[in-house]
Every structure is written in structure tokens, then in C-alpha cells.
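Hi Prof. W.,

I finally got the Cytochrome bc1 complex Rieske iron-sulfur subunit prediction working! I wasn't sure whether to trim anything, so I left the full sequence exactly as given:
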Amino acid sequence: MSKVDNESPTPPEVANSQVPERSTRSIEILVAVCFVISVLATVGLAVTYWLGGQPQVEGGLLFATLGGIGVGMVAWGKYLVPQGPYVQERDTIKSEILERQALLESLDRGSKAVGRRPFLGKLMGASIALFGLINLFPFLRSLGPVPKKALTTTPWRKGSAVVGPDGKQVTSSTLEVGGVMTVFPSNDVGGAISQTVLIRVGTANWTTRPGRETWGPLGYLAFSKVCTHAGCPVGLYEELTQQLLCPCHQSLFDVLTGATPVFGPAPRPLPQLPIYFDSNGNMHAQAGYDQPVGPGYWERP
Ligand code: FES
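And this is what came out:
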């Protein structure tokens, strides 16, 4: 290896040694400070994002994160790594043994120059790794809160008071035969997944399916209003045919047989809510729905 204009080669370590030892120390400190700033800014960015985010603060911290890595790497590369340029003469293709040895020594010196600064290397690795890690945050947060049991249960519970949209409790005389209304549990009036359609099909107890002998007292039947196809509210009741119609894709549910779908894309019956009247004639739920309401990603019996 030799320098341009056929000067004798200047080993990297010699070139680097031209930087005074005190200056080298200062530059190492500068590089370390840059990486530390980057790490702290990344942590700050993560905390800010987790707490809800603030665009200006996030922008400033992102600037500090990337700026710290950038300035640190540039300073390290410019002042701490041996500098060239070195040009190999081309007049001889086959290199001499001495030249090969010089090359190997040169490479060795270069790697030692880097290897002497493991602390800076670790700091740089930490700042880059942390920055990579923080990029996962938007993906994780965008997934939203954990649904817990929200997909499989509703606010309906054993004994829930059945109320109308105005919060008034439903009694045995609330509906005439052929009447229909939307009801909710008293603790979730207006709730999207607890909305239930209440129909009165007669005056005598009505059994829609075996095992549901007590679910329809005095001809009152209650079904989830959330369509099992795509979740639209099933709000149209045709008294003549005793069918519920979903207006979104025209699914028809036969009320008397447990809201089984008889037309349209809905794949499953509307879940039925078991209800009863207390001694004062007020309506309550015997229990919650025995299956998830609405369209399902699961298979139901
Ligand atoms: S959402 Fe009810 S039929 Fe499509």
C-alpha cells in the first residue's frame, strides 16, 4: 500500500496518530454523548407515544434519536477511524510478500482501531437497536385494546332488568300482541351489543325450540338485534309472517322457531334471550345470551 504520488505508505495508525491524544479523547466523549442522547431520546419517544403521543414532542425526540446516531457515526468515522485514501499501484499485478504483509498489517491496525473502542460500539448498537424496537410501537398500539370477553359476552346477566330505550322497565303489559320494541339491560341502555328486539307473538307462553320452554313468557320473545351476517341491527318485524328482516342484505329470520334464518346470507339464528316476569310483572333476563351475538369468527352449534 502506498499513498498517492508514490509516496511511501502511511499506515492508518500513523495517520490516526496525527490526531493529538487529547483531541481523540474529546472526540470519543463526543461520540459517546451522541449515542447516549440518542438512547435517552428513544426512551423518551417510547414513553411519549405510550402516553398518547404529542406530535411536536415526538418530532423533537425523533430528531434527537436519529441526529444522535448520525452525528455519532459521522464523528467516529471521520476522526477515530484511520483515514485514506490509499491507492495500490497497478504496475505489478502480483504483489510481493512484503506488500501483502503490509496490507494484512494495515487491515489489522484498522480492526484494532475499531476494536479499541468496544464501549462506543456497544453504545451505537444500543441506540440503533432501541430505535428499531420503538418502530414496533405503532403496530402494537394500532391493534387497539385487548377485547377480553367483549366478543363472547354481553352486559346481559342473570336477573338483569329489561328496560326500553328510555330506561323504563318493561312489564307484562308493555306490548300488545304483534308489538315490537328494542330493549336493553338496565346497566347498558343504548349498548350496541346488548341491544335486543322484544316481540309479543301471543298471550300464552311460547316455546321456540326444545329446551326453551320457559324463555317466552306470555308470548314475549327476545332476540339479539345484532344480525349474524354482518352485524346490522335487525329492526323490521313483519307480524303477518312472524319474521324479522335485516335491512342490510335482506336476511329473514323466523321468529316462532327461534329466529332461524329462512332467507338471505345470515348463517345462524339470532341468539334468544331467556326472560321472565317477577311477582310485580316486571321483566328480567333469566341469564345472559347462551352464545356470542352478532357475526362470528367462531363456529357455533
Ligand atoms: S347484515 Fe344482516 S343480512 Fe347482512
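The longest strand covers residues 180-185. Does that look reasonable to you?

Thanks,
D.
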